[in-house]
Write a structure and sequence with these properties.
Blueprint: E1 6-7, E2 10-14, E3 17-22, E4 30-32, E5 52-58, E6 68-74, E7 80-86, E8 92-99, E9 102-111, E10 118-125, E11 129-135, E12 143-148, E13 163-165, E14 177-185, H1 191-201
Antiparallel strand pairs: 1-4, 2-3, 3-14, 4-13, 5-10, 5-14, 6-7, 6-13, 7-8, 8-9, 10-11, 11-12
Length: about 210
C-alpha cells in the first residue's frame, strides 16, 4: 500500500528475485513506525473474512542457539501482537500471537534448511485457529501446515510496536539470512489462497 520500510539491510537479487539480506551480528533489520495499517486485530469490520495472514520467502544462515525473528509486531510485555520466528537454522518455524497478555504458539514439523529458499506463512482465524505453513526444503512444491485450535482468542492485542522484518519490533532477536516477497494481509486467507501464493511464486526460487 505504498508504505516503504526503513532498513539497514543489504538489497540484492538472485536472477529475477529481489531480496533484502540481513546479518544478525550487524543488528540489521527493516521497520515501519507504529501505524494503523499494521494494527491488525482480527475484528476489522471492513473485511468479510477478518483475521491475519502474513509471510515471506526466506533463507536462514547457519547460526547458534537463540531466537531469530522473521516478521513481527512484537516487543516487550504489553506490546506484543504477532511474530513469525525460529530458533536457528535446522529448527521449526513458529508463529506466536498475544491477546490480553496471554500468548499462544504453533510450530511446524518440518525444519528450515541452511541457506535454502523456503516459503513460510502464518494465519490467525479469530476464535478458530492459528496456523503456520512451511515449504519443504527438499521436495519441490510441497508445503506443510500445522495448527492449534484450543483457546483461540477473538482478537489480538493492539500493540503499539512498530512492524519489523528480521527482528522483533524493539530491535532484538535478529534474523540471519535473506527475506523476499514479504506480505501482510488483514484477513484470514483460505488454505487455497495461501497455497496459491506459494505455487505462483516458487518458480522464481527454483522450488
Amino acid at each position: 500500500n505504498g508504505y516503504d520500510l526503513e532498513t539497514n539491510g543489504v538489497f540484492g537479487s538472485a536472477a529475477l528475485v529481489p531480496y533484502c539480506s540481513f546479518t544478525r551480528a550487524a543488528s540489521q533489520y527493516a521497520k515501519y513506525p507504529e501505524n494503523i495499517q499494521f494494527d491488525i486485530l482480527g475484528n476489522e469490520a471492513y473485511n468479510s473474512s477478518p483475521g491475519l495472514t502474513f509471510g515471506c520467502w526466506m533463507t536462514a544462515a547457519a547460526g547458534g542457539a537463540g531466537t531469530y525473528t522473521v516478521l513481527s509486531k512484537w516487543a516487550g510485555v504489553g506490546h506484543r501482537s504477532y511474530k513469525l520466528w525460529h530458533q536457528s537454522d535446522g529448527t521449526v518455524l513458529q508463529f506466536d500471537i498475544n491477546a490480553g497478555g496471554a500468548g499462544l504458539t504453533v510450530s511446524t514439523v518440518g525444519v528450515l534448511a541452511t541457506n535454502g529458499w523456503q516459503f513460510g506463512a502464518a494465519r490467525f482465524v479469530p476464535s478458530t485457529s492459528i496456523d503456520v505453513y512451511l515449504s519443504d526444503p527438499i521436495y519441490l512444491g510441497v508445503i506443510e501446515k500445522a495448527s492449534a485450535v484450543a483457546a483461540i482468542p477473538a482478537t489480538l492485542t493492539n500493540s503499539t510496536s512498530q512492524f519489523a522484518m528480521a527482528s522483533e519490533s524493539g530491535g532484538a532477536n535478529y534474523h540471519d539470512g535473506k527475506i523476499s516477497l514479504a506480505f501482510v494481509c488483514a484477513c484470514a486467507l483460505t488454505d487455497t489462497q495461501i497455497y496459491s501464493l506459494f505455487h505462483q511464486s516458487r518458480p522464481l526460487f527454483g522450488r
